[in-house]
Write a structure and sequence with these properties.
- This protein is of the alpha+beta class.
- It folds into two domains: 111 residues, no CATH class; 122 residues, Trefoil (Acidic Fibroblast Growth Factor, subunit A) (Trefoil).
- It has six helices and twelve strands.
- The strands form five sheets. A four-stranded antiparallel beta sheet has the order 5-4-1-12. A two-stranded antiparallel sheet has the order 2-3. The chain has a two-stranded antiparallel sheet with strand order 6-7.
- A hairpin with a 5-residue loop joins β8 and β9.
- The longest helix has 33 residues.
- The chain is elongated.
- The N and C termini lie far apart (42 Å).
């Protein structure tokens, strides 16, 4: 079977041709499948927000437009349970599109929970973050500044990445503890010295090339430019990919 989410895939055709605002649906579906570049931002809040907002509308329309073959493609693409797939198909076949949509959304919720916990655990530990430019994320000892260091990494480029129930926090090696924080309403990234709160939480996503990308609670990606600056941006491209090295 081909890729249901590709340019000519059944889900893409249905969403683009039948469902207004279809990106709200394909976003969480892509994220549940572990595809951060396509749609992680739409899934920051997981399937829960989507379910509360549109289960009776666009998601049900998606189920109707997809038909039983489309629903089977969705469940197969996401690697969801056959039992739930059969239940969704049976509900749709009997005319209960909202029930079918609810099953899809709830299955997606569970898949996202499983993925984020696995990824946060996998990315954790004593790590260095190397950008696509070959530079390393550096935390300064005497102030709250961060930037990217050229050359071989030293102690200031050592971080503790800690798993926080599906998110991660970046703790600098310095004492007392300093944590990487994304500012709301700006692109700024800096260190803070208080106990980690929401601004210090990042969602980890693993890319196909083995690198990692990190999404802030504000829906922006950690980024490093060629001049050594660190900030957040709206879209995830090459500069938003980091390789995690052990130290």
């Amino acid at each position: 079977m081909g890729n249901a989410f590709g340019r000519d895939g059944v889900v893409t055709k249905i969403v683009e041709g039948v469902v207004p605002g279809g990106g709200l649906i394909t976003g969480p579906i892509h994220a549940a499948a572990g595809n951060p570049i396509h749609a992680a931002q739409a899934a920051v809040a997981g399937f829960g927000t989507l379910a509360g907002a549109v289960v009776g509308g666009p998601v049900a329309s998606l189920a109707v437009g997809a038909g039983t073959t489309g629903l089977q493609s969705i469940f197969t693409e996401l690697g969801l349970e056959d039992q739930k797939k059969d239940a969704a198909v049976a509900s749709l076949s009997s005319g209960h599109s909202e029930e079918a949509a609810k099953i899809v959304v709830e299955a997606g919720q569970q898949k996202i929970r499983e993925n984020v916990h696995r990824l946060s655990a996998e990315s954790g530990g004593r790590r260095r973050l190397r950008s696509c430019h070959g530079t390393y994320l550096r935390a300064y000892d005497w102030d709250l500044k961060v930037d990217m260091k050229t050359g071989n990494p030293e102690s200031w480029e050592n971080w503790y990445i800690e798993d926080w129930k599906g998110s991660v926090v970046f703790k600098a090696i310095h004492s007392p503890g300093k944590f990487l924080s994304a500012h709301e309403g700006s692109k700024d990234v800096s260190l803070v010295m208080h106990h980690p709160k929401s601004w210090e939480m990042w969602k980890p996503f693993k890319n196909d090339n083995g690198s990692w990308s990190f999404l802030s609670v504000h829906g922006a990606w950690l980024s490093a430019d060629v001049d050594g600056r660190v900030y957040t941006v709206e879209k995830c491209r090459e500069w938003e990919q980091f390789w995690l090295e052990w130290w």
